[in-house]
## 1
Amino acid sequence: MTNVETMLHRVRPDLLAMKPSALRAFDEEVSAIPGIIKLTLGEPDFNTPEHIKQAGIRSIEQNHTHYPQAAGIPALREAAAGFLNEKYRLHYTPEEIIVTVGATEAIWASLGALIQPGDKVIVPIPAWGLYMNVIELLGATPVFINTEPDGYELNPEKLRAVLDENGDSVRALVLNFPNNPTGKTLRRPKLQAIADVLKDYPVFAIADEVYSELTFGESHVSLAELLPEQTLLLNGVSKSHAMTGWRIGVIAGAQPIIDQVFKFHQASVTSAAYPMEDAAVEAFTAGKDDGREMAQDYEKRGRFLYQALVDLGFDVVEPEGAFYLYCKVPAWLNEDEATFCRRLAYEAQVAVSAGTAFGPSGKNHFRISYASSLADLKEAARRIGVYLEKRRAE
Ligand SMILES: Cc1ncc(COP(=O)(O)O)c(C=O)c1O
């Protein structure tokens, strides 16, 4: 007899086998711990700037409640092109921009437009787990390059070797910098060396630069400046303007390619939401430097926590952007990353994320999101110190 159980087995098997985000599941689990300091999710602790919120409110009042243009309202495509061009020395026309439902949909639309089952996509790891999910759901295979031996930067020679080895089956490389989860970024000389390799192959570079405005020190250089024909540039307002809940991202690329990506976007979501698009116009114009102010604050917090963890004996990647610290589980604890994170949450009331959410090289690593108040970070560092002492005494 047909029942829900039978029907469940008719759902695609690879989806049935896929686990929901372990990172979110752990975050939800530890939320119940009294007094927990959660340094788990990649969520800015700033509120959306007031002038942007007002633009959203005005939009609703003006009855911008109907379908907007599928590729985005013209004002937003123009504002996004202006923002990217001014900040990162690019030359996009508004027609070369698509407005998406967060950078997440930008990843779907760009990979969805390029990849067929059986293709391969190069992913330097550690990397944000969503890439792996999308690649696999599209029937493609991720080819990992572990960046850890190269100071968490993609090594151009290793990239060349992987491209040569895998030949025509490689459709794209996904490159995220500043990086989630390492907090490292790629500076111009290394990025140029990577672009020089990519130029020799007909491979797309999907440059996820959503943390571009949250770069510390020298300002961000975009891969799109160095490799315009092959790059699909992803960005958005989620991280730069503390607008994660508004769900606005953008894809920029050469017109003929963008025209194809547009079809995938339109078939998936029709469009992003109109009031959110109006608010994003404000973010990319009057609010174009809002993110730089937040970056200064994140940098202070990142430097504080980096030093505090180094002083406690942790092996930590020095942060250059975004709001993450990537650390090794101390070997003397003799436990894997999942046990470390669970015990730290229940015994010290500090929650961090297991590194395996970011690919297989994340074994024995964990990520801290430091988009929390300095007071919370100080208390978290204190608790971790006390906890380690307790563990040493065991
Ligand atoms: C590297 C990276 N890209 C994209 C996103 C998603 O951005 P959005 O919230 O705009 O979908 C995230 C969110 O954590 C991220 O870390």
## 2
Amino acid sequence: MLDLEETGGAYQVLARKYRPATFSDLIGQEPLVRTLTHAFQSGRIAHAFMLTGIRVVGKTTTARIIAKGLNCFEAEGPTMEPCGRCNSCISIAQGRHVDVLEMDAASRTGIDDIREILDGVAYKPVEARTKVYIIDEVHMLSKQAFNGLLKTLEEPPAHVKFLFATTEIRKVPVTVLSRCQRFDLRRIDGPKISDYLGVVCAKEEVGCEPQALARLARASEGSMRDALSMLDQAIAHGGSNMVTSAQVESMLGLMDEGHKVDMLEDLFHGRVAQMLHLHDQIHEAGADPVTMLGELGMLVHELTRLKIDKDLPILNQYASDVAERLSKLAGDLEIGVLVRCFDMMEKAFHEARMAEQKKAVVDMA
Ligand SMILES: [Zn+2]
């Protein structure tokens, strides 16, 4: 289900259009959903939650969903299935509910800012069952501000919940942390992302090659929002109603999958001249040398994992001919060789990123 936001008929970017609106939309965050389901059912809900995770895992989106669950008018009490249609759900989604207050601690770090909020804590909610304070980037608060907050967290009124979000959990004082239920929002697995991109493509009536979606998913590094933004670009980039691997590669400056395997085969068979020649070709085709090295490193990493556990579902992200060659490589190579190779690539990757003559550094590696 989607947030009911006014689009005025204008094109809405996919990341926005498919922003999660309810718990079942939170792909890959099953532990959080399980724990909250239990808490909501038993009525034992913490007074404060700490949502942590990297930049783009959807912490504030998740906080709003929890706020909806606490306050949806369609239910008698906290619900894991907020309706998304009542006034409460809609105004929370739009960030304008009178009892759901959002503050960005990155821009309001001082004790006065937090005091303004805490002064309101004593008052009962106007419309909602529960007054919710969503404080983003909470680690940015000053020491004084944290102390002010702590007093309230020690004896919170029953009608108030705090939802904190942070990218840097280590900067949050332990005294505050110990009074919160903590959820670590995780990067989403590649296959889950590409599956969902497939669903979005179907809804948008855009055709797609599964390999293209797998490549977008890998490039997104576990962020659904980034994956959707890239899918948006890929659709625009292609100009047709079809997302292909070739388009995604050219858009992201990535190497052709087949070329990657060519390169690794050359490398492991000591065919240095062929390798350099291929690198020239790929470079001319527009692939970025550093990205290329990063991709090769990833591939060696995957081969290593495959070597350790041949049942890992790694190969099904690749076209069948590529998968076959990778599986053969994994079978032929010693694990020590793979590990050394990965170390070398890692080192070269970091050097090349800093260097002026990126291609030269990668050549030398
Ligand atoms: Zn509702």
